[in-house]
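Do me a favour: review this protein, sequence plus structure tokens, and tell me how the chain folds. Record follows.
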Amino acid sequence: MANKIKLFQAIESLNANAKYRYLHDSKDSSIELIDTIVWTHDTTPISNADILAEQERLQDIEDAK
């Protein structure tokens, strides 16, 4: 089974220098967690839609392995 791409992986794929925090469970598996992101250190926010699209793109790559 392919690894599950987590929110932080999608965020860091879009902006490797992003500074942020968010609530997460041990598996980082709940999509509702995206609504808890707080951007810090003047990081330009990334839209939820862009994060989810990147997560899906990365998941497609992972699933194809």
